[in-house]
Amino acid sequence: MKKVVLVTGSTSGIGKQIAEDLLKEGNDVILNYGSNDKQAEQVKKEFEQKGYKFSIFKADISNEKQVKEMFSYVKKQYGKLNGLVNNAGTNVDEFVENCKLENYMKVVNTNYIGKMLCCKHAIPLLKNQDNASIVNIASRLAIRPDTECSAYCCSASAIVTLTECLALELADYSIRVNAVSPAFTPTPLSLAGWKKEEIEAMEERNPRHRLGRVTDISNAVLFLLSDKADYINGENLKVTGGDVLK
Fold first, then answer.
1. What residue numbers bound the domain in which 139 lies?
2. CB neighbours of 156 closer than 8 A, spacing ≥ 6?
3. In this structure, what CATH number is given to the domain that contains residue 43?
4. Annotated catalytic sites, by residue?
């Protein structure tokens, strides 16, 4: 059955792959991006050339006014929403001792508050559908924190807890809420600041001896959105190749 799904942060990396895979299945997809107009235009042209039918909406998910406008657009254009994929995120690498508060809050406001706001304003549309689903993208750093990224780690942990809270709050409306926690997955955002030898070390350390691929994450998200995942609710699916076990 064709579904209407909004994917935040979907003009690059994991979000773009999720959006494209949903489009390949024939779903109606609303792409969202926050600021990079050039990148959004490139993706728009690419998807149009492939014959996909979609919408694209610019909104900073940490800004509630813009989030409300985005979901008003969805209601007006589609009249319903079957799925929300909360993928948009950012990061600033800083040790707490030297961190700038504005950088710390930027990460928290985008990675956690932004996801909460999207859930808040999606719920009225999701309530009207059978077996609606929210998938929040968290991170393996929610389970296995690291140095120089406490804002990102704490945000990821908060996303997992938010997922569990919403799974309970929305169960009576048949809205399932789950999270996906990827391991390091090479994307334009995640590759920033890493050296080649560091990336090779991560590959070797992983039990699967490779890094995650955007398709690995997309496959998990599409499963959780599907009716095949009807009895999966409030879970955090770790897509890590076993990385968090070591």
1. 4-238
2. 111, 138, 139, 141, 142, 181
3. 3.40.50.720
4. 152
Question: Total domain count for the chain?
Answer: 1
For residue 243, is it within any domain? Answer: no
For 97-144, how does the pLDDT look when each residue is reduced to its tens digit (9 = 90+)? 988 999 999 999 999 999 999 999 999 999 989 899 999 999 998 998
Tokens for 203? Answer: 């590959």
Q: What is the dihedral of CA 46, 106, 59, 54, to 10 degrees?
A: 30
Side chain identity at residue 22, one-letter code:
L
Cβ neighbors of 91 (< 8 A, separation 6 or more) are: 107, 111, 149, 151, 152, 189
- Per-residue pLDDT tens digits for 52-98: 999 999 999 999 999 999 999 999 999 999 999 999 998 888 899 98
- Residue count of the chain: 246
Q: Is the pTM of this model over 0.85?
A: yes
On whether the CB atoms of residues 218 and 182 are closer than 8 A, the answer is no
CA nearest neighbour of 123 among 58, 165, 71: 71
